[in-house]
Write a structure and sequence with these properties.
alpha/beta, 2 domains, homotetramer, elongated, about 350 residues, Rossmann fold
């Protein structure tokens, strides 16, 4: 009987997931003659009623340039802590044995888990319970230390840069301060790189708390020198100096609607207190996850997919693929998760931004 | 002495304004040997301290593909109702004579006013006071009846369509309802055309009040048929049925920040009451005004600019250029302004959308 | 039994074909409950071995933004003049009865033929033999007089304009003459509109023979005024003045390879004789047919598809859909084919180009 | 008196050159208070009649997203081997002393030379004659070993990938073999990376000679498996196996026109001998140099510009900036030039392509 491997995608979607799936299927089928099962909607698809389909070469035709994931994804469905109603009361249960059973039933021998921190931790948990697992990291924020860069990230930077290019002309025509809120809860990579590429005037990131008075001053200085508009890029996790953590998304979350007034609007309110200029806020939100992956992301995702199959062929389980320099390597999942890759406030990239005249927090 | 004409751009910016300016300068200078003055920041540039610069062929080099307006624009500065502080009290005064004086001082004989309803009304007022004026219509919403279509509109539709393409993959991967708020206070053209082009599942426009229960039903029906996501495009002016006008932008406007919770979030709240699905809101906002004009807009704007100079050469003043069928014609400004071009609820375009299975309001 | 209709796409592919197919399927299935068969590879799919598949709602999911045609297309397979080997000798035979038989076998009652001149003439021939037929025009060159504009055309203009935007920076940096060959054998619409939108310095189209000496002069004049580069857009059908028809594609066609030295290279040779500047040629070729349709094309194609189904419902056969002003109408196929829509050398669009300082032939 | 530095761009243009210039000007002016002179048209601008202009902050406003170089560039003007007419006979002379004189006259103390191999060798020559020089590498082909990657390269890959995406739909609709010729005389990086990203079926690069029979076989195999089209990406420097070097650009070069029949057409002829399919050739040519730099290139170019100014501040001359891992470092120009960065035929990237089912030469 043919060897059978399964693949699932978990967490927020990200450009490049389909490229991973395609690379896994092509390599497994063409080079090894294996069978590939696609689990639907992340770990959720392995619980309750198992949802899956076989992935042949035809199933992955034409998906390389497409965003999203043909398998669907979910943030729910942690089998080690799964919500169940017991006597009318919702409780969290460990149902990981059901996952192992589901695997047996499917006849699948190995799981490739593509996802972020949450997904990889679950994968590690299953590995510790005996399931042969290979991990592929996915974080659009590029905040995982174990890999130099993750797929999806560059596409997000390209999307934000394009938006900044667009907003420049309108900000300039109206002499406005344009505040652009972008992704990045813990790490400011998207804000920093797209801010440099999109010619921002100030960049606010979680790693470097900003001071409202200095931000106002910087914008005023620009105006005095004849630049009557300014563009401020703000990562969602940016905070003002002095421990004054910006409060985000309250009412919004209660009704399943994101961000009625996130950090972008908070910064607008702060600037409105010290500037006599029109201020506008643009929240890029889900636009940053969508779209066709740019070439680098398609290639990196393909390399990760090929490497994951190679690890299975070598029976190297409990490991995660990663990019180190120009090489795709593999590391222990256990060591890789939860180690954040943050912007170095004293590093060259922040220095480059500052040399270009961009205020980066502080 | 050389004949001297002046040009200004007023109201919200719009892709194609630079193409107009370039066409006016190239035609006036090359074909007629005139001098062109660019008034800065709309009518504001003619008041207080007159701001202008001469526009030679070099000043318009390379601006065709750029969004915004090199002259700047402003929503303020109506010379017939200009805010002035008298004895510490702000009052609105008619300072239109100052504009006529400014013109004399500049040595300019004719004004080309590029703008929307507000700008064109001011232009008409000045024309009635004796200033030779030619108007060029600009409305990104395409809501002016006197012309078949306006430049900037198609670029906005392209921007929204591209955003919808992007959002499809992420909506699909997560089985979400994605609500996309787009421009259109009075007319739903942008929502309707980009909704058809971007494969929306429902389109809410000002011309056709929507019923929340039917919208929920439509989304539920999709889910039952296996499409576990839906994309709803909402024009800012869309209203729910039964006279229940959606309240927009209140607190937001007070602090110069736009839309803390506009119609997009209102629709999200309504759907949250009847659907058990994740709902996300994306507000495209200023992204729709920015960016390089698409080819049709570049061409239409160029044709408008050339035609405006031709009207001046023929001494046809008080007139506005317009597109009728395939021809650029001219109409009386007086008759053209304020006549809205609305979507016909029983027209072919709405019918096409419905045949495609898109719910359009109702 | 369900009413069954068939659809095929013939001739060169064109952005928007999938939008037509999708609109036909959605309208036929959702609004009328009909069955739709997709014939593969144009009329070729109806001959020899009939190739077709049923098109349900699922078959057209996600195809709206995609270029090409999911049905395939072909320039071969004219059933009124079909190549057959008789006694070892290739002959052209009328096999149109086989098409009618194939239709009976399929149980299809009506044919929607989407294509250009060639395809529509065949459709008309079949209609005259009794097959109920509806035509949808397709010509990327926009050269059909019966309709104001055809889908695919604007996408081609957008592709060429984007290429011109790109080439500007490199032409400018190197002080080169850049010759860009674009589609347009009989009509120069693509060259003219993209030339205006992409800021060409000269546009050569079939409708207006050009004079080499004047073209050289125009480029020299630009250089004298300080613009050390020029961009010349050339339609494939452009010809030099004095009946000296530029000879195209000879050796190339013999080996199934297009254009080893088409009109672009011919113009380069001519300019090389009178200019002392570097000259480069770019042939856009098949790039112009590809890519995602821009919004207008998606909408027009969708409207055409919806209208075609409506004609069938009304039993109006032998007719072709068309755009007239803002309305989608229908005309007799017999009268519509072969009437060319050419650029008017004395018209407003050429005049606009000239006012902008662009040399258009002559 | 202010310290004065000069900058020039030499060789073929490349997306990111303007970002370099902007970063140099902003850093030199803002951080150090220096004066920056821009030499026009590469080393040519330093000879004969010295052409330059001062670059202030205003001169570099808005240039970050633009392709090309505002300074112009040239492949001519090697001062160590400069063509001069002596007694009616053209001779090559060493006029490098004139460059040093020009420098003195300008009052410039340091030269930043941005360019490829040729430009950097000249820079090194001038450095050896005593001119303080800093180099910034530029090669769109990414074929320089001293730096991990060069700016412009990723934009070229993005342009080619986008073209491949476009061509897919048309190749597929017509069942054609589409041959796409891309840049890469010595190194196949562009072909390889864009081929992987754009889902090519075969990639021909200089590093791995291809065998015509195997290429035909691969395409035939695809057809047998139901994929009736194939896309072949060919680098200009690709050669067929058996020392049979493909002859390129002969007649073309004589008349200053590029490539009447380059390697793309050669491959077409070869395939035409063994395949019974329609074959089409697309030569991307100068499109690959143009266009707005993608974000990574904007950032890398900015980092290089900032670093170059830093080297001057530290008086580290005769050195070139480079990327090594995540760091911008500096290396000796003398050691850096002429060391080619080639694709490793046995490396992971080629292996990835092959695992995906792409034939890479051989």
């Amino acid at each position: 009987m043919k060897k059978t491997i399964a693949i699932l995608t978990g967490g927020g979607d990200c450009p490049g997931l389909n490229a991973v799936i395609r690379a896994v299927v092509r390599t497994a089928v063409n080079c090894h003659g294996w069978r590939v099962l696609g689990i639907e909607d992340g770990f959720e698809g392995l619980l309750d009623k198992v949802r899956w389909r076989e992935l042949g070469l035809d199933s992955v035709r034409g998906i390389l340039p497409r965003g999203g994931t043909i398998l669907g994804t979910s943030n729910r469905g942690n089998p080690f802590s799964y919500p169940q109603i017991v006597n009318g009361v919702p409780e969290l249960h460990d149902v990981s044995d059901k996952v192992l059973d589901a695997f047996k039933e499917l006849g699948a021998e190995v799981l490739i888990a593509v996802g972020g921190d949450g997904t990889l931790k679950i994968a590690q948990g299953l590995y510790e319970k005996g399931l042969p697992v290979v991990g592929i990291p996915k974080t659009i924020d590029n905040d995982l230390r174990a890999t130099d860069v993750t797929f999806g990230y560059r596409t997000a930077v390209a999307t934000v840069t394009e938006a900044l290019d667009r907003l420049h002309s309108t900000a300039e025509s109206h002499h406005r301060v344009m505040i652009v809120e972008v992704m990045g809860r813990d790490a400011g990579w998207i804000a920093l790189e797209s801010g440099i590429a999109g010619s921002a005037d100030a960049i606010l990131i979680p790693e470097i708390p900003y001071r409202v008075d200095r931000l106002c001053e910087a914008i005023e200085n620009r105006r005095r020198r004849g630049s009557r508009f300014s563009i401020v890029v703000v990562a969602e996790g940016a905070t003002a100096y002095a421990g004054k953590k910006v409060v985000q998304q309250t009412a919004a979350e209660n009704l399943g609607v994101e961000r009625l007034g996130g950090v972008g609007h908070e910064v607008a309110r702060q600037l409105d207190g010290c500037l006599d200029m029109e201020i506008r806020v643009v929240i890029l939100g889900h636009l940053q996850r969508g779209g066709s992956p740019e070439p680098f992301d398609r290639i990196l995702a393909s390399r990760f997919g090929v490497k994951a199959v190679e690890l299975i062929a070598r029976k190297s389980f409990g490991r995660m693929v990663a990019l180190r320099g120009r090489q795709v390597i593999d590391v222990e999942i256990a060591k890789a998760v939860s180690q954040l890759n943050l912007v170095d406030p004293g590093g060259e990239l922040v220095g480059t931004a500052e040399s270009l005249g961009i205020m980066v927090g502080r």
